[in-house]
Specification:
By secondary structure, the chain is of the alpha+beta class. The protein has 1 helix and 7 strands. The strands form 2 sheets. The chain has a 4-stranded antiparallel β-sheet. The chain has a 3-stranded mixed β-sheet with strand order 2-3-7, covered by helices on one side. The longest helix has 30 residues.
């Protein structure tokens, strides 16, 4: 006895197809949004746009702090600080301005072609930051609206 694959035609009505697509989009936006929200909420930021949380970095260096009685630099001391680390796409270019108020900062970048992009950093308590540019790959840009 031989087994032969049988073909079956599956048909969906238009309303059930639309309902299925909408359901998938809704689930995708809920889960995608919750992943983004969990990354931002775990990092201490209430809103990030254009940068991504990348942990905490401790920086240390030596430098003279203050002056002696003769007005000369005091001996060097080792100082260190912890900063929230954010990753920024390097193709954004150079920082050309900073605006904002309260707990929100907007950083403005301009690339070599003159394109200006903003980065939004919002936090309940503003902490020291280190923003590291990272190389980007397979960049695409599509105009979605006129």
């Amino acid at each position: 006895m031989e087994n032969h694959p049988t073909s079956q035609n599956v048909t969906f009505s238009m309303p059930s197809l639309i309902l299925g697509v909408c359901g998938c989009l809704l689930l995708g936006s809920v889960f995608g949004g919750s992943v983004l929200f969990s990354q931002v909420s775990q990092s201490g930021f209430s809103r990030l746009f254009g940068v991504w949380p990348a942990g905490v970095v401790e920086e240390s260096h030596e430098m003279p702090i203050g002056y002696d009685l003769k007005g000369k630099d005091k001996a060097r001391e080792k100082v260190s600080e912890q900063r929230q680390l954010l990753s920024l796409p390097a193709h954004y270019g150079s920082l050309v301005g900073v605006t904002g108020s309260g707990q929100q900062a907007v950083l403005w970048y301009q690339d070599d072609m003159g394109v200006i992009r903003n980065v939004i950093i919002e936090a309940d308590v503003m902490e020291p930051l280190r923003i590291d540019p990272k190389l980007t790959f397979k960049r695409e840009a599509d105009i979605l609206r006129d």
